[in-house]
Amino acid sequence: MTDKVRSPDQDSPANSIKTDRRTVMKGAVAASIAAGVALPTYLRDFNFTQTVRAQTAGTIKLGFIEDESGNLAVYGLQKLHAAQLAVKEINEGKTLKGAPNIGAGFVGAMGQVANNPPVISKEGTNLDVVDDGGVKERVDLVYDEDDEVLIDSGEIGVLGRELQFVSADGQSNNSVWQQLARRMIQEDKVDVLVAGFASAEREAIRPIVDQFKQLYFYTNQYEGGVADANTFCTGPVCEQQVIPTVQYMVEKFGPRAYTIAADYNFGQLTAAWTRAYIPLVGGEIIGEEFIPLSVSEFSQVIARIQQASPDWVMTLLVGQNHHNYYPQAAAAGLRLPMASTVNMAQGYEHKRFQPPSLANMHNAIQYQLEVPSARNRAFVKRWMAMFPEDQYIGEMAQNTYFTIHLYAKAARLAGTTDQETVKKCLELGWNIEAPEGSVFLEPGTHHCAHPIRLAVADENHNVKFVRDWPMIQAWWLQRLGVNLVRTPEFKQYTPDEDPYFAMFGKKKT
Amino acid sequence: MPSPNHQEPAARYMDNVAIALSVLYQFGTNGAFLLLSALGLIVILGMMNIINLAHGELMMMGAYVATTAVQRGVPFPLAVLVAFIAIAIFGAIFERLVVRRFYGRELGALVVTWGISLILSQGSLLVFGPFMPSIQIPGGSISVGLYSFSEYWLALITVAIVVVFGLWWLYNHTTFGLQARATMQNAAMARALGVNTDRVYMLTFSLGAGLAGFSGALLAPTTSIMPFMGQQFVAPAFITVVVGGATNVITGALGSSILLSLVRTPIGFLFGSFLGLVALLLAALIIIRLMPDGISAWLQRYLDRWSRIRISA
What we know:
Chain A is built from 15 helices and 23 strands.
C-alpha cells in the first residue's frame, strides 16, 4: 500500500534526505520555534511549513483499543467498526468538513418548522421511512446544516502516508487494558491512541498515557472532569446531558427521583452530578443504589424502587449484565418513566429487548442512529455499505468516527505527526462537521461542545426527539478555571470540588 | 364515619403483608437464580468431579437455541425442551471427543474446559455477532400493595424446585442412578459388576450439559442474549455447588442456595445489592471455613449422629 501512496511534495528537497524519526522531531521543534516568531500567539508552537513533510516513509500508526469481547463487547464492536470506516475513508482520500477557529458553525435563519419533531420509523436501520413531523407552518429559528459532510481531502491517507490501523482487544479487563496501552505506546510507537469505553478503563491507562506524553483521544460520553494535557475527550459529559435530562424529567414527571447506577467511577460521579443538580430545579433524589457490574438479577433492586415509589428513575446501567434490568423490571410490572445518559444511545437496549421494556426512556444525547438529518442518513448508508450485518450505531461509535477524522485534519494542518505539535494544533479551537451536527473542540478544556437532543422511546420502542439544543458547551471545567493551553494538568475533577454545588445544592428545609 | 385512626392498623397490616410477600418473592428469586445457575454443574462438578469452566457457555448455547427457536415460531416451553436436547447431544459429543481423556486429571479437565469455553464464546461472537434480540418474558405481573411480582419468576422458582427433586429421584430411585453412583464411587468395581461405565460417564455428562442448556433457556428471556452472557452464571454456580459440597450434591445445592439467599435477601433489601453481594460472598467464605466439605457433609454427619442416637436409644 505504501508504494501506491502519492507524496504531496515530490519536489521538496527534504524528501530525498533519509532521516530517522527523532531527527525529524527535532527539526519540527526547531522549525516551529523559528516559525513562532512570525505567527500570531495562538499559532506559535507549531509550523505550517512543508519541511517536515519529508516524513513520507512508512505509515502513520493509529493505535486503537476497545473491548471486542467480554461484558462490554456490545459497545466495543460498534466503536471498532466506526474506526475501520474512518480509517478506510481517510485512506481513500476523504475527510469531514471542518476547520479551526470557526467555532460552533451554524447559520441561524428564520424558517418554517413543523410542530412535532420528525420521527424515524421502527424499521430502524432502514432510514427510508421518515415522517416529517406534520405540516410546516410555525416559523422559528432553524439552523442550517450541510446535507453531506464527507468531502475530498486532496490526498490519500494523511500527509501522503497511509493511516495504519493498529487494533487490540481490551477484553473488558482493566489490567489487559494497561498491558495493551503500554505495548501500543512503547513497542508499536503509535502516533495517536484512540481508546477507552468505561471510565475505569480510561483511568487505568491515563497514567501510562501521561508517562509517555502520548496523544490520546477518549471518545466516549462520560462523567466529565478529566483535565489532562495529553487527553482529548470528544464525547459529551454530565453538564451537557444530565442537566437537560433532569430539567425535563422534573418538569414533566415530578420532583422525586430514584437513581440506580453502575458501581464504578462513571456511575458514582454521574449520580453525584444528578444529586448535586436536581435541587436547583426543585427536585430531590429519594433513593440511590450502586450496583456491581457482576449483578444480573434485579428482583431486589426492583422491590426497593417500588418501596420508595419515585416519580421517575435515573438508570445509569452499564454492560450486558445490567441491561437485564429492563426486561426484568417490565415483567415485574415496574413501569416508571426512566432517564439516562448512557442507556439506549449506547447499548441500543430498545432494539435488543422486546417492547415495552424501554418504554418511556429519556436520554439527552448528541447522537444515536435515529437522528433525523440528511447527513446522518448519508453516514448510516456509508456504514451499512461497509458493515451490512450491523444492527445499530451508537453515540460513542459516531464519536470515534469523527474523532479519527479530526485527528487526520489536525495532523494535516500541523504538517507532521509529531505528537506535541499535533496537540498544539488541536488546541486551535476546531470545528468539525460530524454526522451528529457541528462539533466544537474547546481548546482550554480539551472537551467538545455538542448539539444535544432529548430522545424518548415510546411503548413500541420508536424513538422521538422531543427537545433540541443546537449547542451545549462542556462548561464545567471552564468554570473551575481549567485552561490546559496555559496550565497543563493531569487530573480528574469531581463535583465535590465545585463549591457552587455545595452552596446551592443544599436541601431546602 | 370511620376515623383515620381506625383505618390505620388495617392499612399497616396490608403494608406488612405486602412487604412480607415481597421479601419472600425476593428470597425465592435469589434462591432460584443460584439453583438454576448451578443445575448443570451439580451433575458435572458435583458427581463427576470435573471442574467444568465451560458451564457458562453451555448455558449460553441453551439460551441461543431457545431464543432462535422462539423467533422461528416455536412455543417457549417446547423451545426450552429443544434447548435441553440439543445441548445434551452437544454434551455427549463433547464428552466423547474431549472430556473423557481427562477423567482423574482434574487440572487437565479444568484447562481444557476453559479452552473450550473461550472457543465457544468467541466462536458465537464471530457467527452470531455481539447480540441477538431477546425474547419477551412470558406472563405478566401480580401486584400487591406497593410491590409487584413477575409471574415468570414465580414459575421459575417452581421449575427449579421440581427439577432438583426430579434429579434426586433419578439418582436415588432408578437403575441408571444406582449405576451412576456406583461408577462415580468406584469405577473399577462397577465395571467388574457389569456396569458399562463408559456409557454412564457419557450419559451423566450429557445430562449435566443438557441441564445447563435447559436453565440457560429458562433464564434467556430475563437476560441479554450475548456470546459472553454465560460468565454471569459461572461464579454463582460454582459458589452454590462448592458450598453445597460433594457428599450429597443435590441436597447440598438445595441447602446452599437456600442458606445463601437467606443471607443475601434481607441485607440486599435493606442496604442495596452491593452489600447483598458482599453478604453472599462472606457467607460462602464462612460456610466453607466452618464446613470444609460443604453443607451436605455437615448434614450427613448430623443425620448419621441422629440415626446412631436413635439406634442406641
